[in-house]
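explain this.
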Amino acid sequence: MLSVALVIALGGAAIATPLTTPVGPLDLFKRVSSGCSASSSVSCSSSAAGSCCFEAPGGLLLQTQFWDTNPSTGPTNSWTIHGLWPDNCDGTFEQNCDSSRAYTGIANLLTSQGASDTLSFMQTHWVDINGQNEQFWEHEWSTHGTCYSTLEVSCVPSGSPRGAEAVAFFNTVVKLFKTLPTYDWLAQAGITPSTSKTFTLAEITSALKSASGFTPALDCSGGAINQISWYFHVKGSVIDGTFVPIDAPKKGSCASTGLKYPPKSGSPTSTTTSGGSTPTGGSLPSKAQLVASTTGGLLTAGTWSVQTLATYTLSGSASSFTMSTSKGNCGVSSGQLTCGSGVTASTFSAVSSGGKLLLVFSGSTAFTSDGTPSGTDQETVFTGSSHAADYTLSIVAS
């Protein structure tokens, strides 16, 4: 399981041990950058007034997720997004802070500003229980998004299109949600939806703390779990700052025992995310090449290249396996993938997506390098999306 000293970077800032995997630059919306220093203060650390680089007064952030079953919304193997709320550091909160920026037509806004991938994910994972997705998104932005000091119009680059700060908000919420695979973390502990079984609050929170390092708050309705809140402070701007996870400062509404976790109707997701993909039940080849989604693939040392790809030996099942090459075991240390003698083997998994079998590390299909290789170049492979070139790695039987 993962360690407890964690931060999540949504921009190019340095990160500590990640909650699942580092979240890289907002690649879906490259035109917006906060310009804030990596040494910006963490929200709730002082009584300073809000600015473009210090979130206040709403410096206590809640990434809230739904588990809707009546009616059922979203994939059967994923929670869905409720929102990202800026509570004040004392537990109070502001709402509807700027009616002049209560934008409508969120889908068009996202599409017109280069965030169609974010919109596509929202259409499956940020959905309204009554099917009114547009109204839901509009509400989350106008009610909560307009209250962020770091998302004021003056905080986006001069000349940005109208609504650029809202597009940055939706990009950030989706990026953050992908690092919080609540369903997968519970499933790893044997806690899956059931029509008959009940759970204790301690069982659920212990499983989530074991996986993430932090304790969220859980809310129930009619004895059934229906919402979870993950708490953060933010260092710098919500646009591209560092999200610092913390234990929930208060408990939710769930009782201590007899908690129901009912199944959804519908279909599981096969969407590739940067966190929380569900292991495939398909067979894992014993010998395979790791092919990058952009160009080339991996060599025997675990480096990315466009040269002749190496053959990897995979030992285990799709839900848990180790890898090795002719050079030795493959492992991840300090976020870097290497293969060689003396390397401690790491555990990987695989997910099916778009007809491909993708390599997963710590719940993420995202891999990244400082640049894209050409000729005889070899690029170091990192987990997550904290470097310039992002890609996925397909497992192709050889």
In short: Residues 29 and 114 are 6 Å apart (CA to CA). Residues 1-6, 11-31, 271-282 have pLDDT under 50 and may be disordered.
